[in-house]
Amino acid sequence: MKKILYAASALAFMACGSSKDASKENDANADQAAKYAASITAKDLGTHLFIYASDEFEGRNTGEPGQKKAVEYLKTFYMNQGIASAIGGNDYFQEVPAEWLNKNARGGTLKDSENVVAFIKGTEKPDEIVVISAHLDHEGIKDGEIYNGADDDGSGTVALLEIAEAFKMAAEAGKGPKRSILFLHVTGEEKGLLGSKYYTENPLFPLVNTVCDLNIDMVGRIDERHKDDPNYVYLIGSDKLSTELHNISEAVNKKYMNINLDYKYNDEKDPNRFYYRSDHYNFAKNNIPIIFYFNGTHADYHRPTDTPDKINYELLQNRTRLVFHTAWEVANRETRIVADKAVLKEEAEE
């Protein structure tokens, strides 16, 4: 009997020790996440955006010279950071041919364009891919006026750069993500979600191995609904395909950021139908869980007045950190998140 009691006590002690070890590991992981999230700053986001949404980039119209300058800016950033191409070598461009674009565009004649793809390989589950996306294009020049697209989607683009840099810092310190991360800047969003459609039809990594898409499209401004309570972001689609992803998103926000997560536009009855109007939707159509981060529309939406001086950089910083923390958790958790709900389908619109 004494031997049995001793064995039971030993097992209980070991279990307790194991639980404490797991708790310590979780705490350490949380500390690391906060450490690298802190590298995402309003100052750095602003430095990027005042260049990326400047007149020099001529509104980044798909296939036009300003858009070519934009993709070169993104490529140079990734090369300088030592963040690898998802294709290999110094080729960061997934070419999207004009013929394909014009067959799928809503109108007009487009020239060859490209998605920009950068990649950090996972340390333990490299074949499982977490995608973080933002569209690189905007409206270009109309009637002699440059549509700079600072919020739409310069804000998401520079957020993606800062998130990539934070993950690279972690990787260099031996804290790289367990799953691989694809930093995906898509073209032609304003022409009908074209770059993301092209990617999902011609994926660099099998869609079956794609864990989720966290899509950032307009996260630098405050809409009229929140003018008195600016600490918010709209989340769209987080619960539509994966209960697990939604719960992770909520828990991460509560733990680190305490941003008001507004689900107004997640309602299927909302007439704006934003769920179907940004690049995450092309992943969702393929049963890949998504979250769309969005600040809502404002008076400068699709206007030449959408300029970088109107961005709230502290808000942009905090929203970017939220995406980073969510990606960190999804990339580092033991089990892959599961899509447990039916796909909702509708024609994409912008």
TrEMBL record:
GO terms for molecular function: metalloexopeptidase activity. GO terms for biological process: proteolysis. It comes from the Bacteria. InterPro entries: EF_Hand_1_Ca_BS, M28_fam, Peptidase_M28. Pfam families: Peptidase_M28. CDD domains: M28_like_PA. Residues 115-325 form the Peptidase M28 domain. Gene3D superfamilies: Zn peptidases. Signal peptide: none annotated. This is Peptidase M28. The lineage of its organism: Bacteria, Pseudomonadati, Bacteroidota, Flavobacteriia, Flavobacteriales.
